[in-house]
Amino acid sequence: MSDLSATRSSADALALVRADLVGFAGYASARRATGNGRVWLNANESADESPADTVGGLNRYPEPQPLELCRRLAELHGVDSAQLAVTRGSDEGIDLLVRAFCRARQDAVLVAPPTFGMYAVCARLQEAPLVEIPLLPSAQTWQLDTDGILDAVATRAVRLVFLCSPANPTGQAIALAQVRELAGKLHGKAIVVIDEAYAEYSSTDSALSLVNEFPCLVVLRTLSKAHALAGARIGVVVANAAVISVLRNLSAPYPLAAPCAQIALAAMQDDVLLRSVQRCAETIRERDALAATLRGMDGVRCVYRSDANFLLVRFDDAGAVFERLLDSGIVVRDMRAIPGLGDALRISIGSPTENALVHQALAVGACA
Ligand SMILES: *Cc1c(COP(=O)(O)O)cnc(C)c1O
Predict the structure, then answer these.
(1) What spacing in Å lies between the alpha carbon of 310 and ligand 1's midpoint?
(2) CA of 224 to the centre of ligand 1 (A)
């Protein structure tokens, strides 16, 4: 095992980057310039703050990669600052990855549907072919078709494999041993991206611990879910430093609004993190209670096991349940248009009060 890992190098990851982008340095933004300036006249900014600027200092362009925030996130994720990029939500991270690794009309993106829609959207925008290797449903879980994925990468020009763990919308996490196996077998052939948007709700170990071992492995995290900052748009890409350097060069010049970066840093302090952990524990309790209630109801076909903050549920008549919830003012995600989910709804776990309303609305005449 150790002999093998010694032969895995960042050059294998760089070899997968679009050849036309190798050496591309991106936009030389004013904030990339360093030096001991006292009078900053290089970015055509206003010298004065706006009267509307309650934050202060917004007359200046923000840091492209806020130093303190990067350091803190690196510390929390157990990596070096150079192995991490902060993005405008993980949506931007997904977009940067597709741009970096896929030549239009040539290099494919592999997904395992049903899955998060942004992978296909970003592939479409880059004109990258989409290869779909569906998850295999069993009683209360979905499994990765590992052989199907390996076969597709071996026979088609797949450059990026997007896997979601815990997965949206199915809810289950991928065991670390399985991630390790895939990352090993696909090393040098494709970049494996593990999207861990819901990791904080899961008891499965994070793939962050594998990043040093596998230069072609990328992990996505976000502050949008467990950290309660969806509106601040903060995502994190963790990978080999060479891959991160490529992504940073492709990024928008100033992707992160200064107030959002400040709030993100504040959210990574110990006391706030503790609150997130407590909130997650409550969400998990609420999730399991709602799952148990649903499993006992007539008209409920299947409640998938969930490692996330939502439940994927199949009903005899999903449309009627959707309407009934809507009559009570409760909006859940209608999954019926998604292939294989024609009878399913995805229900996010809300506050205890909100969840009680869901219990109430569903209890009226069960779900039959
Ligand atoms: C919600 C979600 C995200 C988060 O995206 P942001 O752009 O960070 O808000 C990423 N991946 C998956 C699978 C998600 O469900």
Answers:
(1) 13
(2) 7
Prediction pTM value? 0.95
Cα–Cα distance between 351 and 154 in angstroms, integer? Answer: 46
User: Which of 69, 127, 98, 82 has its CA nearest to residue 248?
Assistant: 82
Q: Which atom of ligand 1 is nearest to the CA of 234?
A: 8
Q: What's the CA angle centered on 29, arms 24 and 31, to 5 degrees?
A: 130
Question: Measuring from atom 15 of ligand 1, which residue has the nearest CA?
Answer: 168
From the list 75, 99, 77, 95, the residue with the least C-alpha distance to 87 is 95
> Who lines ligand 1 at CB under 6 A?
89-91, 116, 164, 168, 195, 197, 222, 224-225, 230, 235
Average pLDDT in the 31-57 region? 88
Do you find a cis peptide bond into 166, omega within 30 degrees of 0?
yes
pLDDT score of 5 more than 70:
no
Give me ligand 1 centre to Cα 25, in Å: 27
Is the CB of residue 197 less than 8 Å from the CB of residue 45? Answer: no
Does 125 score more than 90 pLDDT? yes
